[in-house]
Amino acid sequence: MARRELWLALASVEGIGPIRLNRLLARFGSAENVFDAEFSEIACLPQFNPVLASRVLEIGEHLGTFRRRLEWLENRGVEVLCVEDANYPDKLRTVSNAPPILCIKGKLGRIGRKAIAIVGSTQPTEIGVLTTLELSKSIVQAGFTVVSGFARGIDTSAHIGALSVGGSTVGVFGGDLFSIYPTENRPLAAKVCKSGMLLSEHLFSTRPTPANLILRNRIISGLSVATIVVEARENGGAVRTAGYALEQGRTVFAYDWQNSHRLSEGPRHLIRRGAIPITLSRLNDLQSRLLNPELFTVQPRNSSLVEQLELF
Predict the structure, then answer these.
(1) CA 39 to chain centroid
(2) Is-contact 117 124, C-beta < 8 A?
(3) Alpha carbon of 211 to those of 152, 187, 206, 215, 243: distances in Å?
(4) Which CATH code fits 115-310?
(5) Is the pTM of this model over 0.70?
(6) Which of 79, 94, 151, 298 is buried deepest, with most CB atoms within 10 A?
């Protein structure tokens, strides 16, 4: 495997995300070969230009910065994985825009095929919180890990529900692992690390901006065999997560609320376009679906649902 600092350097080049990085590796074969390439060879690649080529070659002159950052993170209990590492999460690796690197803190080394995402509003109703707690407990009792985004509201409730019954949970950050947001979740972060893990694609200090939070959602769904949307506005972040899940060939569930609350809009929108409806009264049915491995092979995409979600 390439020296880890070479991977980290490539993944840190401004303007080069997972897709462009894959183009570099496909063309040159390895991270070492990228830094040995000629300027013109990089600049002429599809979706590249002279500015990006110069950034790639320039960052190769600063590998010491990445070696020092690796040491700093390791001294603080953070494991840094590259996408080609054997213990990189298997489900996430199959995603076309999988993060080239992951920073992980905690005890859950391999997520495998048994993780379910629960997502929803940061300002849920009381019944939404209670429903999320029950869903999370049920999923853990069926033998699954709960994945969510560590935000206020539904995400926090999903993590708490999993921990309350001795389960494992994964919190995916939109910033770096040391910029815990919201700050009141710092005690929760410590608890998650004891039986699960915290995860970020950001090597250096990074704020959880709206753009970073949206990108984080592809990781939440990518780690999971299915995504459950509890409460959300029709154009909310949880509906975007459902869109990522569909693009990744994963199953989407949505809570079947029988009310007209604005936070029922997102789940209703998803159900109308093909998401599987669930309720607390049918938890046994949900567990049966989750435990049936045939549901988690790559399914033909519901074109109507995907097209609608892509509008957001």
Answers:
(1) 33
(2) no
(3) 17, 26, 12, 6, 16
(4) 3.40.50.450
(5) yes
(6) 151
